[in-house]
Amino acid sequence: MASIHGSLPRRRASGTPARLLLSASLALILSPALAAPAARSAAAAPLDASAATSAALEPLLTGEFALQAGKLKEAATAYADAARASRDRELAARATDIAIVAKEDALAAQSLALWRELGGSGAPLLASQAVLALRSGDERAALRHLDQLMTADESGWRRALAALSTGSKDPPQAARLLQKLIEGGKLPNDLMAWVAYGLYAQRLDQPKLTERIVAEVVRRFPGNPRVSLLRASQLREDGNKDEARKVLESVAGQADADPQLRGLIAQEYDALGDLQTAAATLGRGTQDDQTYALRASLLARAEDKTTLTALYDELRRNAHRPEPGRRLLLGQIAEFLERNEEALDWYRGVPGGPQRWVARLRAANVLHELKRGDEAYAALRALQSDASAEEDTRRDAYLLEAALYAQDKNNAAELDAYARGLAAYPDEPEMLYARALSYERNDDIPRAEADFRRILVAEPDSVAALNALGYTLADRTTRYQEALELIQRARTAEPDNAAIIDSYGWVLYRLGRNQEALVELRRALTLQKDPEIASHLAEVLWVSGQKDEARKYFEQARKLDPENRALKRALEKTGA
């Protein structure tokens, strides 16, 4: 029910509607802007060569070339050489960062020592020390650094949580340190901080620790409805869904005048699988096109056509004026309700504004659903040649044409649509990316690789293309070392991206490094509940002999998406 394309896609799509993610989610807390040290991107622009001595220039350039090639150990070594030659503190910090991302801990420790010797101090240095102590198993030192980090500045609790997530070897170690941090009394009296640590404990599958944190939050912040939401989340994770619903019901009355709180409550009902109640919660209080759209989306996912029809009737009674956004939404609801003729009328009635272009694309899709394929394709070609249309719309018209031909299983016409689109928009990355995925889906790996590489020629630091190509080579070829180097380049730019961590874990598995793979795949699943990640973790556990735990993650993947391709391949391979 959304427009067909947004920004350049990742290897997998996100599951939860972004507009419902209003809570202090772990992904936000561990965002690259806040995380340390790994999230200080090792792929940032190179430092000015004038900052280094002539003796440092050669290793500095060597380091940049190695970084661009995904050879992180060589890059970290070269940057360390440059830092020693120039006695430059920033170069030493950069060398430490790259070595940590590369998991070259001995080299990271040497660079960190130089960084400290050159006057390095403060939160970034403490975070790096904490990560290395965690990896070495020195939990006493790690706790000391995390405690210091917690009070280093106002964002110290965020940095400490990021360092714990980055450096911990496995969930039990992370849980032990998390418990000691809570017991140490250094966590600030800040609701968001406590919620974040509670959510992290939840994601580590530590119900007792989560319950302890929740109890402390309730004691510290009595009467705050967001505390009740954390409690409901904890109960849900523990399997006490009825109790979770009671908690949500107890705070529902406080949400009528608070749109954000309504969104958070709806998100919890969504997580409980009660999509109708989530929609009803959003329906309380003042409504606008955003809340109407969210309600429609939830009801569509619930396949509750009765309630969705009632919403549709309510909206169309007030649609006598030409309001583009409302008419577009009505068309989308009608389309889901399979009232395709009505949907077509709504789309064609959108009078102007940016909604008009989305409506024209959706109208073509509806024509295809009505088995009026010739009209659908003619409408898309008219959009492609309409000089008044927005450039994104014209591009999307080629992408939608190709997608519809794919539904028709007309591979030749699909590829022709991509070819014409690329003739109109040479080397357009989204077009190349979509065609590469089509090639991969049809087992034409050489052509998929060629398109990913065309993106990288124009955009050498495209994280999406680096990750997708690296994963494709790891998953569909035996060129594992080459795949590793590509994924390493993506990791340096976005070290906390769950899809990239999953790719890294998968290539480690392909290389036979199963225990290292398990660490990465567990971390990826902690950051994002995703059927592909769960399937990968389950497969590695299965081949490692941990079949009972593997079955748990296979079941999780089935619940998330029983038709997932990675899940089907893993089940076929393992016979689980």
UniProtKB/TrEMBL annotation:
It comes from the Bacteria. It holds the Pfam family TPR_16. Keywords: Signal, TPR repeat. InterPro entries: TPR-like_helical_dom_sf (IPR011990), TPR_rpt (IPR019734). Gene3D superfamilies: Tetratricopeptide repeat domain (1.25.40.10). Residues 1-35 form the signal peptide. TPR repeats lie at residues 429-462, 531-564. Transmembrane segments: none annotated. PANTHER family: CELL DIVISION CYCLE 16,23,27 (PTHR12558), CELL DIVISION CYCLE PROTEIN 27 HOMOLOG (PTHR12558:SF13). This is Tetratricopeptide repeat protein. It comes from Lysobacter silvisoli.
